[in-house]
Amino acid sequence: xxxxxxxxxxxxxxxxxxxxxxxxxxxxxxxxxxxxxxxxxxxxxxxxxxxxxxxxxxxxxxxxxxxxxxxxxxxxxxxxxxxxxxxxxxxxxxxxxxxxxxxxxxxxxxxxxxxxxxxxxxxxxxxxxxxxxxxxxxxxxxxxxxxxxxxxxxxxxxxxxxxxxxxxxxxxxxxxxxxxxxxxxxxxxxxxxxxxxxxxxxxxxxxxxxxxxxxxxxxxxxxxxxxxxxxxxxxxxxxxxxxxxxxxxxxxxxxxxxxxxxxxxxxxxxxxxxxxxxxxxxxxxxxxxxxxxxxxxxxxxxxxxxxxxxxxxxxxxxxxxxxxxxxxxxxxxxxxxxxxxxxxxxxxxxxxxxxxxxxxxxxxxxxxxxxxxxxxxxxxxxxxxxxxxxxxxxxxxxx
Length: 399
Prior knowledge:
It is built from 15 helices and 13 strands. By secondary structure, the chain is an alpha/beta fold. The chain has 2 domains: about 10-210 and about 335-395, 3-Layer(aba) Sandwich (Rossmann fold), CATH 3.40.50.10540; about 230-320, formyl-coa transferase, domain 3, CATH 3.30.1540.10. The strands form 4 sheets. A 6-stranded parallel beta sheet has the order 3-2-1-4-5-8, sandwiched between helices. Strands 9-10-11 form a 3-stranded antiparallel beta sheet, with helices on one face. The protein has a two-stranded antiparallel sheet with strand order 6-7. α1 (about 15-25) packs across α7 (about 170-190). The longest helix has 23 residues, at about 170-190.
C-alpha cells in the first residue's frame, strides 16, 4: 500500500504499543525509522529459544516489518544530536515511555519541536500523560483491568486470572494512535501546523467498550453479568452443532427470525418474540425456546448450518477457534495470512493488514530489520559523511 508514501516516521518506542502503531503506518507506505537505544534496545526482539526464528519471536518480527533500524546512544549529547537531525527530516515522531521520561532524555515533544516546529508527535502510554495512574508501572493487561474488560475468572486452585487471554488495550491504543496520526497529518497539510497527541491505552479500551458501558453509565447494571440460562439472549447465542462445533445465531429482527423459522421448517416458532416496542427481540430468558433451538442445531454439522445461513440470508456465523482461523475460507480468501521471508529465521506466517485498497495491495516490502541494520544508510541520508559516521561508531554514539 502507498497511502502514506512520502511520510517519514521517527519511532523511538519499543515492546508492543508503539511498534504496533508504526507497523500500521509502515504497512500503509510510510518510511518508518526504528531508533533503538544502544544499551538495551527493543528487548522484545530477544526470544527464549535462540535456535528458533533467528533468535527472535514471531510477535517482534510481525510488529517490525517494513521498517528500517538505527541504534543510537540516547543518553549522550552527540546521540541526541543525531536524533535531532533525524527529527528535522521526519513528519511524525512516536514514543511510548512513561510520561516525562523522553523529556528527561531531551527527546520530548518540545525538544523535537524546537528543531521541527511542524512535527506530529505521538505519545502512547498505558494511562496517559496526566491523572493519578500516569506514573503507574504497567503491562498490557492492566488497561483491560481498569476499563472493566478483563473480568477476574477463578481457576481450580482458587486463584484468579483475566478472563480474556490477551490484552486488548494494546491493540485499541495502537489503532487509535495510528488514526490520530493520520488525522494530524491531514491537519498539517491543511494548516501547516503539527500536533502533540496523548493517547492512553486505557482510555482507548474504555472508548472501545462504549457500547457495553452505556448501560451501567445510565443505571442499567453490570455490563458483564455472570451468565446463566435465564439471562441468555436466546436468539443471539451460540448453539452446539451435530459435530460438536458451534454456530452463532443473530436472528433478533422479526424478519430474520421469521425467515429462519421458515427455512428450518419450524414456522410454529415464528411468533415467539415481542417486537412491539423495539425492532430487536432477543427472547432473553425464554428457556423453552432455547431448548428447542438446542435440539434443532444438534441435527446438522457446523458446515451444513453455515451453508444454510449463507444461502438463505440468515444472520449469524460459525465459531472458529483461533487455531483454525488461518485456514478458513473466510480469511484465506481475504489474504489475511501472509508469509514473511525473514533472514536468519526462514519463512514465518503473520497476519496481513486488514485494509484493502483497490489496485494498491498490501505487501511486506522489507523484512524485520536486524538491530542497527540501516544505521549507516540512514545517517548518510541526513548528510553525515563516511568519516563522520565512522567517528560516531568509534565513540559508541551509534552502532
